Amino acid sequence: MQQQQANGSPDSINEKVTFAPAPKPALKPTTIHQTTPPPSSFAVRVVSAGDSVGAKKLWGLFAVICLILLTVYPASYYLVEYGVLTEEERTTIASLNAAVPNSSELTSKPLPSFLPMREWNDREFLCYLTVVMWITMVLTGLGTEVLVWIMFIKGGWNDERENLWWLAQFFFPMIAATSIGLANTHNWFSMPLLVLTAWKFGFPETVLSLHTALYDNKSSFLVRFVNFLSGAGTVIHHSASALYVAAVCTNLIPASRFVIQITVPLLMQHWFVLLRYNYNTAYVVLEVVLEVWFQWTAFGLLKFFRFLHWTGSLGACGMILAHWMYFTAGFLSLFTKESDEEDEEESDGFVDCPGRKLGRKKSLYFQGDNSMERLKSTRLMWVE
Question: How many whole angstroms separate alpha carbon 86 and alpha carbon 373?
C-alpha cells in the first residue's frame, strides 16, 4: 500500500503527459556591422516606391518633368541674353546669324515655293533638327526608365540588381566619353549611346527620385525636398547632356577643343562615384575639387558657347544649375540623418512592403531578401 502510494495510483500512471510548445523568441532589432557596403539610395527609392505603378502617378511625374524643362531652359535663355551679354554682343550675334547662307538658294534643282522651311537658312534648319533629336533622346531615356521600372523592378531589390546598378555607374565615364567623341565626329550613333549611359541602361534613377518627392507620404518634408532636388537636377543634367550631343552631332555647334573641354571635368567626376559607398569623405573632397574646376571652365566658356549658338549656352547653364542642385541636395541630406534618428526614437511601427512586413527605420525600406546582408549602420526589424 505504501509502495503504491509512493509510486502513484495506476490511473495517474496511465495518464498521458503533454507539453506545451515553447514560444518562439521574438526577433529583436539587430545591428549589422560595417562589413559590406550599404544599400544605395537608389535601392531605397525602389523598395519604398512599392510594386504598384499607377497611370495617374506616371502622368503626374511626366507633368512635373515637363514643367521643370519648360521653366529652366527659357529662364536660362533670358538670363544669358539679358544678364550676361551686352547690347553690343547681342548685335554682333544677330549679324553673324544673318550672314549664314541658305542652301535652298544655292541648289540648281527647282524647289516648290510652298515647301516647309524653304526660307530658313542652314543654321535655322540645323537648330530645328537639333531640337527634334534632343526631344527624341529625352523621351527615349525617360521612357526607358519607366519601362524598366514596370517590367523588371517594381519594388523588388536584391544583390544582383544592386551589383548591376554599380556596374551601370562604373561604366558611365567610358561610355559617355565615347558618345562625346562620336558626337564631335558627327556620328549619329552618339545619340543612342548617350541615352544608354546618361539614363544608365534604364535604371529609373530620375523617375524614382521624383516619385519619392511627390508620393512618399511616410518620409519627412526635408527628405522629400532632397529627393526633389536630386530628381529635378537629374532631369536637367541628362537633358543638358542630350542637348550638347545633339547640337554637336548635327554640327549646329562646330567641334573644337573648347567644345570638348567643358566635358572633361564632368567625365572625371564619374571616376570616383563608387567611392561614396565606402569612402565618403574621399569622395566628397574629390568631387568638390573637380566641381570647382568644372564651374570655372563652364563660366569661362559661357559667352563662347552663346556666340556659337544659343543651344550651347542653354546646355552649359543647365549643367551648371543641375550641379548646384546636386550639391544643395547633398548638403541638406546631412540634416535628414538627424531627423530620421528622431523618428526612430518616436515610433517602431511596421509598414507593409512587397514580400514581407518590415520595420521602418531611418526612412529606409528594404525587402526581406539577400539585400539585407548589405545593410550598414542600419537597424532593421522584420517578421515572416
Answer: 59
Tally of structural domains, the chain: 1
Q: Tell me what pLDDT residue 43 has.
A: 78
Q: Residue 105: its pLDDT value, please? A: 62
- The residue type of 178 is T
pLDDT tens digits, one per residue of 26-63: 555 444 444 445 567 777 777 777 666 777 888 999 99
Asked if 226 and 325 touch (Cβ cutoff 8 Å), the reply is: no
Tell me the three state secondary structure of residue 358.
strand
- What distances in angstroms separate CA 215 from CA 46, 141, 210, 212, one per listed residue? 13, 22, 8, 6
Any domain includes 374: no
Beta bridge partners of 382: 358
Rounded Cα–Cα distance for residues 40 and 95 (Å): 51
Give percent above pLDDT 90 in the chain: 53
Q: Is residue 244 part of a domain?
A: yes
337 pLDDT tier (thresholds 50, 70, 90): low
Question: Between residues 278 and 156, which one has the greater pLDDT?
Answer: 278
CA distance 193 to 180: 9
Find the domain containing 317 and state its range: 41-89+119-346
Residue 374 and residue 39 in contact, taking contact as beta carbons nearer than 8 Å: yes
382: pLDDT strictly greater than 50 = no
Encoded amino acid at 182, one letter: L
Q: Coil, strand or helix: which one is 325? A: helix
**The CA-based dihedral angle spanning residues 354, 359, 361, 367, taken in that order and rounded to the nearest 10 degrees:** -30
Q: What's this model's pTM, rounded to 2 decimal places?
A: 0.78
Residue 71, classed as helix, strand or coil, is: helix
Q: By the 8 A CB rule, do 69 and 142 touch?
A: no
Q: Is residue 11 part of a domain?
A: no
Dihedrals phi, psi of 323, to nearest 5 degrees:
-70, -35
Q: What is the CA radius of gyration of the chain?
A: 29
For 167-182, what is each residue's pLDDT tens digit?
999 999 999 999 999 9
**Any residues with CB less than 8 A from the CB of 188 and at least 6 apart, and which?**
249
Residue 21 domain-assigned? no
